[in-house]
Every structure is written in structure tokens, then in C-alpha cells.
## 1
Amino acid sequence: MTADASDSPADLDSLAREWRAALAAAGDEEAVEEWRRSVLGRSGALTGVLRGLSALPADQRRATGQAANALKRDLEADLEARQEELRAAALASQLAEGAVDVTLPGRRRRRGGLHPVTQTLQEILDAFTRMGFATVEGPEVELDDYNFTRLRIPEDHPARDMWDTFWLDEDVDGEQPLLLRTHTSPMQIRYLDAHEPPVRIAVPGRCYRYEATDATHEWMMTQVELLAVDEGVSLADLKGTLLEFARQLFGVERRVLLRHSYFPFVEPGVEVAVDCFACPGAETGCAVCRGSGWLEILGAGMVHPEVLAASGYDPGRYTGFAAGMGVERIAMLRHGIEDIRYFYSNDLRFLRQFQGV
Ligand code: DAH
């Protein structure tokens, strides 16, 4: 694309055609800039023509000058138009790349599920709700009095050895030490203090024990406490209630066994077992009952008269039963889980097995 001032207007026309074709062929910003430099730039071809005008004979100078200047204006306009075209094309392709295809199938979101302990807890509470127990909750940070003393576990009582406890540094009002409750039983006292009989409550909640973790112990666990107090409540009511509970959770065929045990706040105290649902009965090698035929599921008993009296109930008139169970233990038995630590190690491979259960 060379040109000089000796080019006649007719030559300029053919050059202009060439230049326009080259501009149209410039496919990106860089090529367009290159074109601008070679035609309209300081040492560009058209600039050369304009510079050389003065060397022309006077009669050609005017016509060629006019034609060259007009061409310069036209080419500048063409340049701008081409730049605009390329910008629009770039934008259009960007939009096309990011476009959303609304006809594609959506991405399925994984739905969460309730934690297996929550599922079992809900079933336990459902069972007791059907039998007329109201669900109430108490504080996890508890007073020494409610957690131990009022449950007949005095400071030097060996029973306190059963609960190695997380104590808090702060005092409430400088009087009593605070602790993370070791069981849900303190709610028995709180509730009895504040209510008139009849009482029928189920108390779910987290409890904490400062003890080594192993396959059957965690420093945190979930319990459900049961308390029924009224005139004429007997051990038979306790057994009937727990039998119904065991049938709802472990199957209608279940039988329950009460064995003597000791808890300071009940008299008599019992340990409750259900017959094994996983084997025909005491089968050696049964992974659930380990051949014993029975599964211990909770502690229970008749509310100690001193506990009732301390809350202002006349133990000559009112009697009651109480029970306390570990929800993790019941979930483990039902699902055949061997290690309690699975519940709180946040392994999704474990937890997802309980989705949609
Ligand atoms: N609180 C006891 C524990 O954590 C369980 C318990 C036993 C609760 C007997 C009761 C009961 O209400 O009567 O081990």
C-alpha cells in the first residue's frame, strides 16, 4: 500500500478501495490499530500523500488535496465504525459464552436430614407424648443443689463418683458452684418445686461428664428423663409405661425386665432391660445382646419420699416414678451402631445412612 503525492485522484480511489478492504479484514483490535498506523498514522500512507501535496504542480495540488482530505475524513469514520463493530462482536460473544441454557436440567440439591440421635429422640418423645407426658426442658448449666444435693447425692456421697463433672469457674452468687449437668434428673427437682401434682413430664437434653471417651462413653450425651407423680402411682405404672415405650421403639413383641439397682433419688431403684429384638433369644454371637438375651436401656425407680417432701409434696399422699435413659445408647441398639463416637465425629458417610430413615 504505497502512495505518494503524485497519485492522481483516480489512483487514490483504487488505493482507498485497497485500504477499505484491509480495514474490513482486520479481525481484532490489534489488527485495526496496525491498519490505523499504516494508513492514517504519522508515517502512514495517506499521511504521506498529504505531506507530498506541496511538491505537486499547482493545477493538481488543489484537486488531489481535496480528494485526499475527504478520503482521510472518510477513512477516520470507517475506522471508528470498524472499532465499534469489533467491540459489539466481542460483547456479543461474551454474552453468548455466559448465557444460561434454561432448558438444561437443574442441579439437584442434596437435602439434609435429621441427625440419628435427633431422630431417635423425637421417636422417644412421641411415644411419651402419646402416653400423656408433656415435654419440658431445663438448663444445661446447673446448680450443685439440683444436680446432686436435692437428688440425695451429698458432697461426700460416694455416688458422686459416678459422675465426674465439668465444674464452672464462676459462682452464681458466690454461694453454689455451677456445673454442666451430668444428667437430666435435676429437672425433676426444678419441676416439682414449681408445680402441683399431677406431674407427667419427659425432659430431653444434653448432659456432660468429664470422663474418658470410648466406644460406649462420650463426654456429651443426650438423655430423656421421665417423671410421673400423683396419688396412687405405683411400680406397676412404671413397668406398664416402660413396656409400652419399649414396644413402640423396639417392636410390639418386646418384654421388659426390671432388675434391682441403686440410684440415690429413687427407692426402690431398678435397671430396665428389653428382650433382644435382633435374635430369637440369648443367641450366642448376637451382636446386639451379646448372648444375654436382654438389653439394658435405662435406670428408673420410685421417687424417693425425701425428694418429694423437699419439694413440698406430702409423701404419705403422693407417690411417683422416675426414669432416665441415654438416647445415644437407644439409637445404637436400634441401628446396630457399635461406637458412640460415630455420632459426633461429623463423618458424612456415617450420617447419610440415616437420611430418609
Ligand atoms: N440420672 C441417672 C443417670 O444419669 C439415670 C436415672 C436413673 C434417672 C434412675 C432416673 C432414675 O430418673 O430413676 O445415670
## 2
Amino acid sequence: MITKESIDNLKNHLEIVDVVSQSLELKKSGANFKACCPFHGEDTPSFVVSPAKQIYHCFGCGAGGDSIKFVMEYEKLTYPEALEKLASMYNVTLNYDETNSKPKLDLKVLETINQYYQKLFTNNTIAKDYIKSRGISEFSIEKFEIGYAPKSIDTINYLKNNFLNLADAKDLGVIDSGQNGLYSRFIERITFPIYGLNSKIVGFGGRTITGHNAKYVNSPQTKLFNKSKLLYGYNLAKENIYKKNRIIVTEGYLDVIMLHQAGFNTAVATLGTALTKDHLPILRRGEPKVIVAYDGDNAGLNAAFKASVMLSQSEFEGGVIIFEEGKDPADMVKDGQIQKLNEIFSNPTPFINYAIDYIISKYEINDPMQKQKALHESNEYLKSLSLLYQDEYKRYIAQKLSIRENLVKVTNDKSRVKFDNSSTKIDIAELCIIKAILEKPSRLDLVLDLIDASMFEYHNNEFQMLLDDITNPSLNSIVLNERLEDYDDKRLENELLILLIKFYSKQLNKVLYEKDIDFRKKANLIRKLKDNISQLKKGKLVSFDIDLLK
Ligand code: ZN
């Protein structure tokens, strides 16, 4: 069991925006952040994260909670598993009760083995010669912690001799077991340690120098290592990305290292995969301009197209750079073409232009039939973009195909889901009052004396909920609803007056037309109600009287 003290300590380290943004792309929206909800399908964001309240809430499906709940739901983890995951993310130590404590994965294995590989590199001439031949400097070797993984048996012996936990080493993807026992995952390869968002090492990339079939390999998927979510070099580029508002996404380790060496220190690389939706949350961090820099071969062009479609649909700013004639950025740095690189990086082809150009380039547009197909395909792509872009790029497609602009169709039926898509009627004034109390629970004292849940015409349920338990998560939808104004004390008082006048006037009407009531009782009620209304109209809040409620 994890001790309560260490859970509380962990909670103090959690930042909900940070936690959620490791999995979702969050966009700033007023005081909060928004995203499309990961728990139900939707196109219009109704998932809200509040840094002030440290909670999230979906207005579409009602999912909600704190950082721990999010990790549990999103990663499908149990409570203790979510705590352990967050603890490792935030570098917080969890303490366990003596009873049935479970040994924790020792992450030190990765750090230790990384140091071992680095040490071996300095003594290995073949590895060093290869790295030097690529133009990589001593400084970069240290900065990127380039290492060398020896023969399998050497790694296994090193782990054993240093009493490192072999089961952990296996879970962390350093070694594995086969028919002949344990073997190392990285054998006679130059190693590039890969860091996660928490700047802790999570795995390796390895390049063979002994002519092994697979030129590059990565760590296998582990608890910590998910290659479709990681970017090589991000740990070293992060600060510069925030500063320069730019991130350069390349295809390889060497590109990253060489670009950093030449001062392009916002370069990162995907780990042998294309950019995927899973990368978007990292790319969104700091809202940088994204520059996709790929090789000019068919695979590179196609990957750049797919990235352009995805990034433009997600409304990322930036564009594409293609390195022609097999010259990758690493070669250009090696050849000293820094000035040229500078120019290239300053002029990327915007994503939408690149995507449209790519589509049209597939067709022989002098042939009317082919032109028709090119129009159809670029039109379909255009329709997947925001209305503003559709309008902007209609002209571009028309020009490219030399056709009339009105032949390019845009859509105007983008069905915008309303923010409050519940069918129940809502009353803004009532909700504002509830929100004001939730914002400052000390106001409950004042309010308790004046109103009863039954005075709320539409939201008596919510008010009752508030009275029962002010921390009820179902109330988060009110706290986070940006359409509701934030009342100060004075405004709250005014709104309460209005609500009460409305309520007592309605009661007065009811009583006046009520037949089954004793005459004296009726007269008494009417007098009380009229008196209340007149007091309220003078701006005086009156305590409620149980007799006046029915
Ligand atoms: Zn939802």
C-alpha cells in the first residue's frame, strides 16, 4: 500500500494542464484549456481543463476529475498504477506500507547502462571513427551521450556484476530472454539514449556498425517507451523551442545532432516512424511553428504530405522543407552550408500549399479527366479544413488547376455541436448564482439563510447537490462553464434579490388564486409575501420562512 502522506506529497507536485497535455493537445481558451474529449467521439472540443481548479470536465459525456483520475481513465490504470506512473513522471518518491509492499521498477538500470555504453564508446575506434566521419564533434558526442553497446554477453555480465535487477532490465527493454537465455537488445551498435518528456531516459536507439541487417533499432515498447509518442532530442531542444517558437522535425538521429551542432537547436526526430496523432500533444507544447524537414525521396515526400494533412487539419502553423538530391540536413551541416540552411528553414512551404501541390502533382493535369480527379481529391482535402482556410485556399486550387474558382467547392454545413448539448433547459442567472457559491464556498453562509433549493426554477437539483456536498464532481460543469459570468459579492447579492423577488411574486400569485386554504391563513401568507417583496425591492435580503415555500 502506498502511504497517504506520499500520495498527498505527489498531489502537490501535479499540474493538471501538464498531466493532460502529455496525452491530449490542449488549446488555451480563456482561463482554461480545451480539447476534443478522449472519452467520447466528438469534433468540437467540449473537454475543459481548469488550471485554477486542477480538474478536467467534459461537457459532452460528463467525464471529469483530477490528474490522477485522468491518468486512470486515459491509460486504463488502477489507482495505485496511476500513482506510480505520475510519481515517476514527476520524480516523486512514493512510500509503501510495510505490509504487502510491491517492489518498484528500478529506472536506475537505464541510467547505469547508458553510462556504461558511453564509457565503451570512448574506447571503441570503429564507433568513434564512424561518428567522426559523419562530422559529429566531441561536444555533440557528450551532449547527446552517444554510446556503444558491446557484445550481448558483455552487457549481461555488466548487469550481473553491478547487481542490477535483471527483471527490471528486461521490463525496461535493455535485455530480453530467448531460447539460449538472456541476451542484450543492443548488440554492437552505436547508442543514442532517448529521453521522455520528464527528461528521464526511457530507451535507446541503436545504429549497427558491424553490418547487421537492421541499420537502426529502437528499444521495444515498454511501460516507459512508446515510440509513437516520443521525439528524439526533445529534452535538449525543449527550452529553445519555447524561446524561439519553432520546432524542426527531422527523420533521423544524425540530423538532429548535426542541426544542433550548427545552432539549429530546436531540431527533433521521430523514432523511425512517421509523425502520428500521438505526437501532436508534444508538438503543441509552447505553440511553436512546426517545420517538417524530410528527404526528397518518395518515402520522404509522402511522409511530408501525410504530416501536412494532419498538421493543417489540427491547425498547426508551419510548413514543409524537402531536402533534394539525397542531401539531408546532416550532410549540409557537414559541408558547412549553414547560411543556406538558414534560408531554407526560414521559407518552408505552408502545410496546406504543400498538401495541395502534392495531390495535384500526382495527376497529369493537361488531361481533362485527370484534372477532374485532381480537383476532386484536392476538394475533399479542402473540405476537411476550417471554413476560413477553405475560403482562402479555393483560389489557390483554382489557380493551380487553371479553372474557375466557383468550381472548387467548399462546405458550409460544418455542423457545430453546441457547447451545451443537453436538451434540458438552462437558466443562466440561476447557474451563475450556483457558480458564485462554488467559487467561494464561504458565501454559502449568506445564501443558506436566504434561499432554499425549491426557489430554483430550473436548477434546484444542482443547488441541492451543492448543499449536500459542495465538492461533488458533477458540479464541475458549472464551475468550468465559460458562458457563466463570475459574480463578485455585490453582483451575487443583486442576483439573489432578483431571484427572490421572482420567486415570492410567483408564490403570491399562487396563494391569491388558491381556493383550498383557510381565509386567515391565506391573508397571513399574502401579508408576509407582500412584505417580503417590498423589502427585497428596497434591496434588503430577507431570510426565508418555511411557511412561504409551499
Ligand atoms: Zn466526453
## 3
Amino acid sequence: MNLEEYQGVWVFIEQNEGEIEGVSLELLGAGRKLADKLEVPLAGVLLGDGIRQLANQVIYYGADEVYIIDHPVLKDYRTESYMKGVILLAEKYKPEIFLYGATPNGKDLASAVATDLSTGLTADTTMLDIDLENRLFEASRPAFGGNIMATILCKKHRPQMATVRPKVMKALEPDQSRQGKIMEETISLKEEEMRTKVLQIVKDVSNTANLADAHVIVCGGKGMGDYQNFQLIHEFAKTIGASVGGSRDVVEAGWLPHSLQIGQTGETVTPKVFFAIGISGAIQHVVGMKNSEIIIAINKDPNAPIFDVATYGIVGDAMEILPKLIEQFKQVLKTSGGELSYV
Ligand code: FAD
């Protein structure tokens, strides 16, 4: 393999029913930095049916180029059809780096493409960089239970591929004055040749989506003691219009469903305000919430590691503090006669 033939940074643009997923916009922000370091173009790869109008949005968020395949068979995501499209483009244009969101579809597609192109794939990364001296992509992710960050290189194969966790990278502010090149490829796909059929799409009705988009999260930990006390977390969240999350220990205790777990093996969240209540601050938890704008920790142990990442800390017993906070907020809301707004 002649590695020098491969140039440019690509981002797979995941879209659902004509709407681009947030993680793809975040990856355009991250990809922009990589492309600038390497002095190569950043391209978005957009597949679907009737999706041409999304190309400008991809450019506004940082891409120099957009590769499009628009075909009725690509209406809904399927491994087989999307893989064919992506491989056609990758073999023809030879990108050096190719990023995908670590979403169910992104992970599925990236692993299928990596296998077919006989290249490497680093899954679930949280940090991306370039070793300019050796012109290598550095994809890092937590390893060994989150105790170390492992940086993984793909030295001998191209493209260098990674899936990246949603909510870890930052999207750029869209710039409508940006201009880019839009290139459309044709593909021969026949519905009758597809081995899988989409019979019905059932929307995710779990609370996970709420959590990822929440402005305020009240996250409870094992320090709440038992299921009964944990109801104070729900009451506080309801009072201030926040979403509820929990640590893994809380999920394992059965106080919350796994869809509300925050951390390395749960959701990554970036709300404006994150309350960490009765949470020790284990690294595996912190990786999922440390990018929140304001972190308010309540813990009875002044040496709890959560205070290392907290913006504000309250040392004390949550069972005494929470009822007072609930009462105070209720009073404020009563006198102001409205909802709290988070701007
Ligand atoms: P604890 O560590 O037991 O902490 C409870 C805290 O509450 C303590 O700091 C204590 O001082 C405080 N406290 C006690 N009583 C009160 C009170 N009355 N008022 C105020 N404070 C009080 N964890 C996650 O959260 N998310 C993950 O995704 C995750 N993934 C993991 C993956 C792996 C591979 C491994 C090995 C672990 C993972 N963990 C994860 C587990 C993680 O290591 C911790 O065990 C877990 O986060 C601890 O949960 P906790 O903070 O609720 O409980």
C-alpha cells in the first residue's frame, strides 16, 4: 500500500430523516483541526435519499468538500448499502483519515468498512491529534477501566479510522459565508438485491435522548443510600426542570435504568449545569460529565475526588441539603411565578 496516495480528512455525516446528527457536526469541528494541521481539505461524506440540500450545512460547519451519494435504496441506514457507498468513495478518493460518530449506526458502518478496506479502526475515541513528524493520526480512548488513556496508531494501512463519542468534540459555529466543493457520485444499488429490509422504524422512547440534550442534569450516586432516598433526586430535578442521571453503582442497584447511566460505559453529557450528588467522582464517571459548563457537587466527604472537577462544592449530607434546596427553589419559583430559564 502506497500511503502517500492517501490525502484528506473525511467525516461520515450521519443523517436521520434528512436531519444531520449532532455528533457529525461535532466531528466536522474536530476534523477541521486535524485537516488544518495536515494542511489538507476536510470533507463530509453524505449518503441518503433526497439529501442534497444538506450539503451546504456540512460546509457551514467546517467542511471544504462534500461527497454525496443520493439514491432511493439509501433512504434508511443499512450496513450493506451504506458500506457499498462509502467504500466506493474511499477507494476512489483515498482519504487519509476517516471519522465516524460512535453511534449505533456509525459503529456498525465503520467496522464493516474497516474490514472491507483491510484497515484499522479505533473505537469510541475521546481525543484526536496528529503526530506531524510521522504524519500519523493519534486516536485516544480510555483503557484498562479508564485508568489510562491509550493512543492507538494505524501505521501501515489507510484510511486511519476512528469512531468518536458524541458530545466530546465541539462543533464550530456555523458560518453561512463558507464556500465548498460538492461532488456527487452515482452508485448502482438495487432494492431486490439488498439482503435486509427495513419494515418499520420504531422511535427510541427511552430517556437517553433527553439526557444527551438536557441543559441541566441532577445526577445521583450511591451516597443517596437507598432507593427511597434517591427519590429526592427525582424531586429536586422535577422542581428545577432538570433531567435525572446516575452513576453506574446506582444503575447496578436498580434505582435507575441503564439508559440514564453517565460515564465511560454510559452516556457522555455536556449540560450547562450538572449536579453531582452523593457521587465520589471515579474516573469512569468523570469522563462522562467533565465537559459540563458548571458542575455543582454535594458530598459529605471533603476529600471526594468529585470536588477536583467541581465548579462549586457543598460539603454536607445530601439528605439534609436536598430538602432545603427543593424548598428554596419552590419558594423562588412561587414568588417569580414561572419556570427557571437556563441561558
Ligand atoms: P461511590 O463511589 O460509593 O460514592 C458515593 C459517594 O457518596 C462518596 O463519595 C460518599 O462520600 C458520598 N456520600 C455518602 N453518603 C452521602 C450523603 N449522605 N450525602 C452526600 N454524600 C454522601 N461508574 C459510572 O458512574 N459510570 C460509568 O459509566 C462507569 N463505568 C465503569 C467502567 C468500568 C470498566 C469500571 C471498572 C467501572 C465503571 N464505573 C462507572 C464505576 C466507577 O468506578 C465507580 O465505582 C462508580 O462511579 C461509583 O459510583 P458512586 O460515585 O455513585 O458511588
